[in-house]
Amino acid sequence: GKTIMWFRKDLRLDDNTAFNKMLEESKESDELICIFHLNPLQFLENSYNHNAFFYSVSTFYKQAKANNVTIHFVYGNVEESFTALKRAFQDWDAIYFNKDERGFGSVRDQKMTVFFEDNQIQVHSYQDSHLHGVEEIKKPTGESYKVFTPYFRKWLAMPKRPYQRTMKIDKQFEKITHPLFTEGEKQFGQLVEKIVFPFEYECGEAVAEQYLKEFIKTHLHDYQKGRDYPFLDQTSKLSRFLRTGELSIRKVWYALNAEPVSDGRQTFISELCWRDFYNMIYYENPKQKTQEIKEQYRQLQWSYNQELFEQWKNGETGFPIIDAGMRQLAQTGWMHNRLRMIVASFLTKDLMIDWRMGEEYFQKKLIDYDSASNIGGWQWAASTGTDAVPYFRIFNPTTQSEKFDHYGDFIRQFIPELKNVPNKYIHEPGKMPMEFQKSINLVIGEDYPNPIVDHSKIRSEILTFFKKTT
Ligand code: FAD
């Protein structure tokens, strides 16, 4: 009969659990078909996230083809698409895929598993995307963890699955002609045609591997020292390859373990654990995209001030470090982790704007958007999540700036207006005497905004804001 491999956030042939299993388990007589399902519900307009993801799909399509694997596209509502597929291929009797354990994808996978079973299609699904799946790390009592550190301790002690290079692909993956696939290909073609990036962008398995190697060679061992300084640009930038599956997480693990022990390596490993942790947290709190995890904070009266929100989005808050971070996001589709923390704290604490608005804006812009990590990061900053920053520990944007961009190198890179501001004033350019402002042709309030809030007053306001609910 026919066997289908359903690709989704696992855009690689190497060490792909479901794909490997299919190759291993299929018989000579089985006809193997690879598909990618395009769900119009998941299309986002003008979004780097969307463009980056589908550009990766398009790159994968080409690279798979070069390895004699044809990917067929199916377009439309999930259930209707698979019903049509079953009608078209009566002898289709098995499906392989790497499952999504949380969010939209997990709901889809559960629904479709029932559908496949009802239609006598054998389901072979696997956890492939994380070092440990959502049910693997539990307290001795069987409960799930809510705090990172004990989770990390347990996670470290657990054996990890090995990296498994894909065997030689000697099966047939020829192109199949069918109106469903023709339509899918047409829709995909139209989608790809519209993809544009205002920045340089390359992707694919080989590029991902290059990033991994380069990072290990040049930055891994001082990762711990440099990771918090945006101007050093010392982090791995692997996030986008992990979210598309262009890079196998087991390949990363295997490469790290071939390296000598160092503080850098250990810290990097803990970051990979955060990825698993937030994945598990989303599974445990399926409503977290719209609802605060901590029940006592569900009644907070967030602000919806559009004007302030726009200033934040556009990098026009008058706080250089915030503006530089927001402009990095708008210009490159990526933002350094330290800045994500600072700008998220600023939106939710200084502006008291609903964290959901920030989460949604990041969803649109980030080329590494991952729902579990993004929502986790936002609820952490808003103090509403698990193991979040307590509401009374408020990031001071100026102090953060002095600490993590001391000489203003990063600020000047993204805010050219401030390039002539001396170090002394770079974190608070409004403090430059007017005479001096004029002498460098930069009038604060005209050429660069004055701060849109008075941070010194925020603390007491936030304490009142949160206390109302406790
Ligand atoms: P590195 O420092 O090189 O870290 C290596 C890998 O570890 C990352 O690629 C990532 O997979 C993982 N990792 C690191 N930090 C975290 C973290 N805090 N949580 C979960 N995983 C982590 N990460 C995303 O992948 N997608 C998102 O949409 C996302 N949104 C975020 C939103 C906010 C408000 C915050 C505070 C953090 C968010 N993060 C997100 C986490 C983190 O900022 C990024 O993973 C990191 O900046 C990616 O760059 P890198 O690959 O160079 O990271």
From TrEMBL:
Sequence similarity: Belongs to the DNA photolyase family.
SUPFAM superfamilies linked to this entry: Cryptochrome/photolyase FAD-binding domain, Cryptochrome/photolyase, N-terminal domain
GO terms, molecular function: deoxyribodipyrimidine photo-lyase activity; DNA binding; FAD binding
Cofactor note: Binds 1 FAD per subunit.
Protein name: Deoxyribodipyrimidine photo-lyase
Catalytic activity: cyclobutadipyrimidine (in DNA) = 2 pyrimidine residues (in DNA)
High-level lineage: Bacteria, Bacillati, Bacillota, Bacilli, Lactobacillales
Pfam entry (one): FAD_binding_7
Listed PANTHER family: CRYPTOCHROME, CRYPTOCHROME CIRCADIAN CLOCK 5 ISOFORM X1
GO terms under biological process: photoreactive repair; response to light stimulus
UniProt site (Electron transfer via tryptophanyl radical): W302, W355, W378
Ranges of residues in domain Photolyase/cryptochrome alpha/beta: 1-131
Binding site for FAD: 223, 235-239, 268, 271-278, 368-370
Keyword line: Chromophore, FAD, Flavoprotein
EC numbers, comma separated: 4.1.99.3
Cofactor(s) annotated in UniProt: FAD; (6R)-5,10-methylene-5,6,7,8-tetrahydrofolate
Superkingdom of origin organism: Bacteria
Species in which this protein is naturally found: Enterococcus caccae ATCC BAA-1240
Gene3D superfamilies in the record: 1.25.40.80, DNA Cyclobutane Dipyrimidine Photolyase, subunit A, domain 3, HUPs
